[in-house]
Amino acid sequence: MSFALAMPAVAAQLSTDARSAIPKDIQQLIAVDYRAMQNSSAAMDLKNRILPPELKQMEEALKTSGLNANHDVDELAFASFRVSGVDGTRMVGIAQGEFDVPTIKANWLKKKVKYTKVRTNRVYPMGTSGMSVTFVNPTTMIFGSEEAVKSALDARDGVTSSLLNNNSMMESMQAVDTAAVWSVLDQEGTQFMMHSVLGQASQVTDYDTVKKRFLGSRYMMDFSNGVKFNLNVQTPDAFTAGTMASLLNAAALYKKMSGTDAEKQAIGNTTVKSDADNLEVNFSASDSQFVSLLQSPLFQAVVH
C-alpha cells in the first residue's frame, strides 16, 4: 500500500466565502482535502482517525442528504466555536466543491423536503440526521445542527463577526493551509491537546505553570515523500517554549519505556525543540511506519 503515491500534492485551502461562514470565536478548525482522501484506503483510514465521533456524524449526514460526497466535495472543514451566552462549543461543517444546486434543490422539492429561512438563506434538513444544510453559493455549503448553521449564517451575513476578523487564527492558517491536512487551535484547544499528549507528565507542577501561557497551535501533514507531521505551539517567551520542550522530551522518554511498539517507533522518529518562543514537534516516517502509528493512542491525542 503506497500512501505517498496515492496522495497528490494538493492543499485543503478555504475560500473567502468559506472563511466568512465560520464564526470568529473558534476553538479548533480542521481541514482536509477530501478528494485526495478518496484516492487511498490508507488516507481514508487517516481521515477517519482524525475526525472525532461528532464530526463523523456530520460527515455521514452529508452523505445521506442527497449529495454525492465522493464526487461533489473537494474540501471539508470542521470548526468548533463558542457562542456568547452558550456553554460549551458548537460545531459546523463547511464543504467546498462544484455543487449542482438547482438539481439538488429540485430533488429536495420533489421529495417534499421543507426548508426554513434565515433571512434570505434557505436551510434544509439533512434527511433524518437532525442536521441542516444550506448553500452559500454553488461552491460552498454549510452543514451541522440548526443552531450551528444559523451561527454560521450570522457570521456570513455580517450579523456577527467571522473568522476573517480573527487575526491570530488567520495568521496561523497562513502557515499551514498549503497542506492536505491541517488544523489550527486557540489557547483553550491547545491546552486540551497538550494535556492529552503529555499524559502522566501533565501532572507535574511545571505544566500547571506553563499551560496558561499557551497562545495557540497549529499542525499540518505532508504526504509527498513518506509522511511528515509538524506541530507548532506558540508561547509568549523562550522560557515557556523551553520548559514545554523539556516536558515533552520527558513524556517521550516515558512512552519509550511504556508505550506500544508503534509508539516507541514513532517517538524514535520525532524531534522536539524550542525555537525562540515556539515549541516545535516534527515527525517523519515511511508509509508503512505511519500506517502502524495510526493505531496508537499517542497519534489520537495529537490530532483530535
Write the layout of secondary structure elements.
Layout: H1 3-6, H2 16-20, E1 26-33, H3 34-37, H4 41-50, H5 53-63, H6 69-72, E2 73-81, E3 90-97, H7 101-110, E4 116-118, E5 121-125, E6 132-137, E7 140-144, H8 146-156, H9 167-174, E8 181-185, H10 187-198, H11 205-210, E9 216-222, E10 227-234, H12 238-258, H13 261-268, E11 270-275, E12 278-285, H14 287-293, H15 297-303
Helix pairs in contact: 10-15, 12-13, 13-14
Please summarize what this structure is.
The protein has 304 residues and is of the alpha+beta class.
Please tell me about this protein's structure.
This protein has about 300 residues and is an alpha+beta fold. The protein has helices at about 5, 15-20, 35, 40-50, 55-65, 70, 100-110, 145-155, 165-175, 185-200, 205-210, 240-260, 260-270, 285-295, 295-304, and strands at about 25-35, 75-80, 90-95, 115-120, 120-125, 130-135, 140-145, 180-185, 215-220, 225-235, 270-275, 280-285. The chain has a 12-stranded antiparallel sheet, with helices on both faces. The longest helix is centred in the last third of the chain and has 21 residues, at about 240-260. Mean pLDDT is about 80; it is low at about 1-10. It is built from 15 helices and 12 strands. About 40% of the residues are buried. It folds into 2 domains: about 20-160, no CATH class; about 165-304, no CATH class.
